[in-house]
């Protein structure tokens, strides 16, 4: 009997395996229009560890949350006659876009607009919220996080992405210093603070490395350039200026075989965290083996995909459905 008690005590004192952090991708964007305070609040209420705002700049230099600086698909700007003459075409990062752009609006003008669902065919239930929510500033998101921390007694992190930083720098609206300054004003200055700053671009991450001790994440797409970045040598280079990578899921599980690449192992070997993107519950986004039926809007076996990546050793997941991620990983 004493031996059993000893074993039980030993088991109870053993450290638990680290669970992947759950990053609410644009909030709980599967259930509310993305990048709205309602979306972030729902994600927090469902148990997200971090909320993820994509950041762009207004004409008067305010950081706001939008997936892109072109806002015709995420707001009702096209229905506003007073802004009809703002419609234009721009080349951003080598691609031509026609529409309305945040950098051509002051914050006060953007506050006239209301958010709408970006994927109405896949998420028709979200369209019920069209027209209800404003475009939030980063400060408003921070205020929400702080209020929720006070109400719940738990730590809630921020995971901002700088969108098209090279483009914004080129038009005199750099994202880096305003972001670092605003975070510092709110007490986020240390690598121990619950903040990750992410970007697909390398130049601005290297610039940020000289401006802040907050943790930085290199986003990586599953194209030819991305595959080179997550090679063993590429990861060693990333480790000189960043604290982790945010790889597209296909860089870890590239096919239906279920066999992982060496990306997680190689990243961990040079001290990098691994936070893959993006986990979505609809059949449309899931690998074939995790789908249920043929309706693209129906939820499939997202839990199996989360567990596959958890068991492979990822340190976090970007999810559109916070509740599904919590159910699978907690």
Write a brief caption for the model.
It is built from twelve helices and 13 strands. The chain has 330 residues and is of the alpha/beta class.
What does this 3D model show about the protein?
By secondary structure, the protein is α/β, with parallel strands linked by helices. The protein has a single domain (16-67, 117-329), classed as Phosphatidylinositol (PI) phosphodiesterase (TIM Barrel), CATH 3.20.20.190. The chain is 31% helix and 15% strand. It has twelve helices and 13 strands. The chain has helices at residues 2-13, 37-46, 107-110, 138-152, 165-170, 176-185, 203-209, 224-229, 232-238, 263-269, 302-312, 322-329, and strands at residues 21-25, 50-52, 54-57, 63-65, 88-92, 95-99, 157-158, 161-162, 196-199, 215-220, 244-247, 273-274, 316-319. The strands form four sheets. Strands 7-2-1-13 form a four-stranded parallel sheet, covered by helices on one side. It has a four-stranded parallel sheet with strand order 9-10-11-12. α7 links the parallel β9 and β10 (215-220). Residues 1-17 have low confidence and may be disordered.
